[in-house]
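Before a colleague's protein record goes any further, I have to sign it off. Alongside the sequence sits a line of tokens, each denoting a local backbone shape. I want your independent view on whether this chain really folds as the tokens say. Where you disagree with what is written, explain briefly why. This is what I was given:
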Amino acid sequence: KQWYQRRVAITAGTEKTESTVKTESEPTINTEAAKTETKVETTDKGTKLEAVSTEGVEVESHVAAKIVKQLEYYFGDRNLRQDRFLLREVTLDNGWISLDTMLNFKRLASICSDKAKIAKAIESSNTSLIVLNEEKNKIRRNPDRPLPKNSDEEKLASNLKTVYVKGLPLDLNIDKAEEFFAAHGKTCYIKLRKDGSSQFKGSVFIEFETQADADKIVLNKELKYTPESEPLIVMSRNDYFKSKSMNVKQEKNTKREEQMGGNAEVKLDVPETVEFEKGKVLKITGLAGVETTREEMKTVFEGNGVSWVTFNKGDPEAFIRFDGSAQEALDKVKSDEKFMLSGKEASTVVLEGKKKKVPTATLR
């Protein structure tokens, strides 16, 4: 009888059992991935986050420095303008992003996964780039330091602050690289150069915060990774690409002389065109007047399995063949949905359909 009365009450809408409420609020999937997605979703919807207290919280100085440096990298000029996820997030809440969301970045989480310690590291630092809100549960890029436009002047300034270093140990990782180069100035970007199989090649590109620090390390001809190792090869980014271009020309001349054996004319057995599988070749147009090289294109797509690039200086278009999907490689290097080359936007199209042919006169 009691069960019947309770059932009637529920049907009439006058009562809701505890079990009914519980069932409605339970998640349907209980996985770590779902938890992560829920954090991002509730933050985006504006759900009130619990304030974070830093009272009595202590963070080791070297850990605090790593936390702030990693956050400055995420929100820095170089990364933010090409990070589509962050660019979307900063439009949702006046630039604020919750610490819960930031902890979805694996590298930050590997340094510290404690929100209170992250907040403490920020408020105890002298960073002028990262701002912590009053509740200490969100951060954003300082509005007084807006993201610079991706102009030719900005590209030139970035190039002048970028240095190429070769001769580093093959077991070098990003932590070791940051520790080593920190003694030579504050860096805002370090790229470990890798081959097609994602193995470190022993060389890096480093962008310093100031051109003065970049110039200083280039002049240090005795720079060594360890006291026992050989001096490292250090040069400016611009000098690197110039030397690369000269080396390519020298190799061409040497091969031509060897093939010709003096004055003898030799005809090379090279087809005028080469076939390729659909979806693996990227066509870049709008290059007329753009100061770029094949080497720069290879560097832009470094680590994405570039097979060859066909382009001559002054050509209005170029073709790049990849081992895998050309579209995936293009998506990885786009900045704000744009493909930039030498500071200018270029048009791109992935060649689809049946197998097509591309001139091999400048295939390298």
In short: The radius of gyration is 27 Å.
